[in-house]
Amino acid sequence: MFKRKKKKSIADIIFTIVNTILLTAFCVATLYPILNTLAVSLNEGMDALKGGIYLLPRKFTLENFYTVIKRDNLATAVRISVLRTVIATVLHMFVTAMLAYILSRKEFLFKKQVSLFYVLTMYVNGGLVPVLLLFQDLNLTNSFWVYIVPGAVSAFNMIVIRTFMNGLPDSFVESAQVDGAGHIKIFFRIILPLCKPVLATVALFIAVHQWNSWFDSMLYNINSPHLTTMQFELQKLLSSVSQQQGSASTMKNATNAVTPVSIRSASAILTALPIVCLYPFLQRYFVTGLTIGGVKE
Asked: Which sequence ranges are marked TM in the entry (predicted)?
């Protein structure tokens, strides 16, 4: 026999309506800035200065994207940005996860002292000038490895991964040790597969930071055009457009010229596109409870 559907009470109906309205408003508030930026990037630069552009461009053009793409040395900058993002993400995630595993082991006697040492680095900084002098002494300036080596270990990411590892049942490690497995085998064969959710989250943090970073290019590799990054080139492009707009001749003669507003919007869309494409592949790992039911205590 078919079960009769339970009638919803008035309170349930009101809750569903209010919940739907709030979630819809949240989605609109989240998507509107992105759609507005896309509309401005597809609008003529001088016309965009008038304002009044919301979800659709008023005067459609691709000139803003052409200006960004035609930037000199952009191909090299994109290649360096992709390389630093991929290499740094893989290396930083591996080193940080290995450190987190060591500090999560109960048999490690100095884990509290070492953890405190790393936490202090989050609050104490030597300053910009000492760091620059240190990098010069280590021959990291004017080098690709200045993007990779300094941030190989992140205290914050280490704490996040270690906290996740502390929540894993000890039975996994104990069973492997009974079978004769060492810590290296346990780390690669047991711990890492169980830590996919937190590793995916940390990987996204690192990738976004590396992809959006431009200040280190200006500080350490400003004299090495072959090591420039995409974000730094776009920053220089935005500065040059701002200087051109300040001249009276440019404002009078260029009715279809790009402006800082339109260039900023086009740059934001182009730089956000790779991260938006990457996120769906990592989203399925943003779940917890992989070990629930894995071992019966």
From this structure: 12-35, 82-103, 115-138, 144-165, 186-208, 261-282
